[in-house]
Write a structure and sequence with these properties.
Layout: E1 2-6, E2 9-12, E3 17-24, E4 35-40, E5 47-52, E6 59-61, E7 69-74, E8 79-84, E9 93-101, E10 113-116, E11 120-125
C-alpha cells in the first residue's frame, strides 16, 4: 500500500488543522485497512497519536490528544483524516499516517505499523 499524507502547515496555538492520508494500491473495500497517525517532534521518538479499526471503526487516542483530535475515514475516497483542534505548541511535529499493523489484538494500534506515508509537518506557534 502507498500512503500520501497532506494537510500540514503553520497554525497558531488554539487553531485547527485537518490532515489527510490517501491510500492507494489496495481498494479500501477489499482490504483490511487498520490505520493510524503517529508523530515525531524534533529530538524525540515517534509516538502514537490516533488509530481507527477497520472492523468496526473503533477509534483510539493518545491521552495527550483525547478530546482535541478526531480520526475518521472515508472509504469511498480511500482516505483517513485527522482533525486536530485546540492545537498546542507541543503538538508540533511531523505527522505520519500508517497502515498494516504489526500485530492484531486488543492493543494492535500500539504494536507498530508496517507501512508508512512520507510525513507532513505541523507547526504550532505560541
Amino acid at each position: 500500500v502507498q500512503l500520501q499524507a497532506s494537510g500540514g502547515g503553520l497554525v497558531q496555538a488554539g487553531g485547527s488543522l485537518r490532515l489527510s492520508c490517501a491510500a492507494s494500491g489496495r481498494p479500501f473495500g477489499s482490504y483490511r485497512y487498520d490505520m493510524g497517525w503517529l508523530r515525531q517532534a524534533p529530538g524525540k521518538e515517534r509516538e502514537f497519536v490516533a488509530a481507527i479499526s477497520w472492523t468496526d471503526d473503533s477509534t483510539y487516542y493518545a491521552d495527550s490528544v483525547k478530546g482535541r483530535f478526531t480520526i475518521s475515514r472515508d472509504n469511498a475516497k480511500n482516505t483517513v483524516y485527522l482533525q486536530m483542534n485546540s492545537l498546542k505548541p507541543e503538538d508540533m511535529a511531523v505527522y505520519y499516517c500508517a497502515a498494516d499493523p504489526l500485530e492484531y489484538g486488543s492493543n494492535w494500534y500500539a504494536a507498530g505499523f508496517g507501512s508508512w506515508g512520507q510525513g507532513t509537518l505541523v507547526t504550532v506557534s505560541s
